Amino acid sequence: MGGTNLEIFKFGMYIMFPIGWMYYFGTNLESRFSVPDFWPKPENTHRIPFERGELEEELERLKKERLDRRARRLELGQKGGGDGSGERAG
Description:
The chain is an all-alpha fold. The protein has three helices and no strands. It has helices at about 5-25, 30, 50-80. The longest helix is centred in the C-terminal third of the chain and has 28 residues, at about 50-80. It starts with a helix and ends in an 11-residue tail after the last helix.
């Protein structure tokens, strides 16, 4: 079987492997695991409107988008030959 030196070597590996692993992945994290432009810039993110005028503009924009999607959905339903009831055959 193995001798004392083998047991000392195995014990050293059991101790040093996790320490080495933590040292490798725990140092210099900013340059090693960074993805450029991962987080959006403030001008590209959603901005919450607080003023009354901004709220009204946002509501109008959302209403226009909803009506555009509805018109497009109805147009596709008429072209597809469906009756527009939304029920699936099956």
